[in-house]
Write a structure and sequence with these properties.
Blueprint (H helix, E strand, L loop, with lengths): L1 H10 L2 H4 L2 H18 L5 H15 L11 H11 L2 H12 L3 H5 L3 H7 L2 H12 L4 H8 L6 H11 L4 H13 L1 H12 L2 H4 L11 H18 L4 H15 L4 H8 L1 H15 L4 H4 L2 H31 L18 H13 L6 H25 L1
Length: 370
């Protein structure tokens, strides 16, 4: 009787029920945890995502089944609530001053979104549905919340693969971008020192989020959830009378949403949905989208350099992807390699924050068309 009870107990354990595919997913989750903790690759989101992958791939846990904890926490992902709330926090932490001071850099942020639409066409050519292709293409914006928002609306079955690819490439910005930047520019261009940005008035900072939101929302209403929260968060920061709300959006609210979003998105990467050839295609296409976006931003930077008589360093064009502020820091780093006296960080922040706006607009366009 005792041995029978022991046998019954063992049959309920994960050791007895685990599959080879689930073991592979557990190893992948542990590897991602290593990258997040030891290498500090986007740890604030990669740690929750990786742990969510662990939770869902332990047999018998039923964590995502109806009645399970993450089942309920996942519903706001399905409804498209978490990403706009993260954009609220991002807006409260973002300084649009460099973009306001040099509006031309808006073009660089727009150019870097080119990779999204090129990859969209490539995914269609490989047999993905239009909705799946749109979800894959948005990886090129290097904006995790935007990728999650669009994928949850268009192709929720790809959410785990798209989210992991998006955040992986955001984390690998310092590795992926510099070779592309150096290949497309010469030493003389990389050494260009840009003029100091003009001061931006308080009035400009307050009016900017209001005007941008009105213009973009009338043009692309489907982008309102992301752009509306982004600009509302920035208005809380800049208006000077809502410091408590701004601090809450930046800290408590943002941190809570990041935990819930990371865990639940990671929990969509179960062995059955993640370990497919399709996932390899998504990761490859995502890398292509990111590389194309970086390259187009640098090439437009070269064109603007020539048109302005050498006043714009083309390296800041690579910051047009939405990985804030890491992409801007990479522009600064590569520029300092060529010229130790170069300081491109604030100049690169212009296209960098423009890229956040651009990726949200691109998501809105794809959502409206598909």
């Amino acid at each position: 009787m005792v041995f029978e009870q022991i046998g019954n107990f063992l049959e309920t354990t994960a050791f007895y029920n685990v599959s080879f595919d689930q073991l592979i997913m557990i190893v992948i989750a542990l590897f991602l945890l290593y990258l997040a903790i030891a290498k500090r690759y986007e740890p604030l989101l990669l740690v929750p995502i990786s742990f969510g992958m662990l939770l869902v791939n332990i047999p018998q846990g039923d964590i995502m089944d109806p009645g399970g904890l993450l089942y309920y926490l996942y519903q706001p992902v399905d409804w498209g609530v978490y990403p706009p709330l993260i954009f609220l926090g991002v807006g409260a932490m973002t300084d649009f001053g460099p973009l306001i001071a040099n509006p031309k850099t808006f073009l660089l942020g727009a150019a870097a979104q080119f990779g999204i639409f090129i990859t969209f066409l490539g995914a269609l050519g490989l047999g993905f549905t239009p909705q799946e292709a749109g979800s894959i293409g948005i990886i090129g914006g290097a904006d995790g919340p935007t990728a999650i928002f669009l994928t949850s609306q268009l192709a929720p079955e790809l959410l785990g693969s798209v989210a992991i690819a998006a955040y992986a490439y955001m984390a690998l910005v310092p590795i992926i971008q510099p070779p592309i930047m150096k290949a497309l520019t010469n030493e003389e261009e990389r050494q260009i020192v840009m003029e100091q940005l003009r001061p931006v008035s308080k009035r400009e900072r307050i009016l900017f989020p209001i005007i941008v939101f009105i213009l973009t929302s009338f043009l692309i209403p489907s982008a309102i959830p992301l752009l509306g929260m982004l600009m509302f968060g920035n208005l809380l920061k800049e208006c000077g009378v809502t410091d408590r709300l701004s601090n809450a959006a930046q800290n408590e609210l943002n941190n809570i949403v990041v935990i819930f979003l990371g865990l639940t998105v990671g929990a969509t990467a179960d062995a059955g949905s993640f370990l497919r050839l399709q996932t390899i295609g998504i990761i490859g296409l995502g890398l292509g989208a990111f590389a194309v976006g970086t390259a187009v931003g640098v090439l437009l930077g070269k064109l603007m350099c020539k048109l302005t008589g050498g006043k714009i360093n083309p390296l800041i064009g690579s910051a047009g992807v939405s990985a804030v502020p890491m992409a801007a820091r990479v522009s600064q780093s590569v520029g300092r390699e060529a010229n130790p006296n170069n300081f491109l960080l604030m100049h690169a922040m212009g296209p960098n924050v423009a890229g956040v706006i651009g990726s949200a607009i691109a998501a809105g366009l794809l959502l409206a068309m598909l």
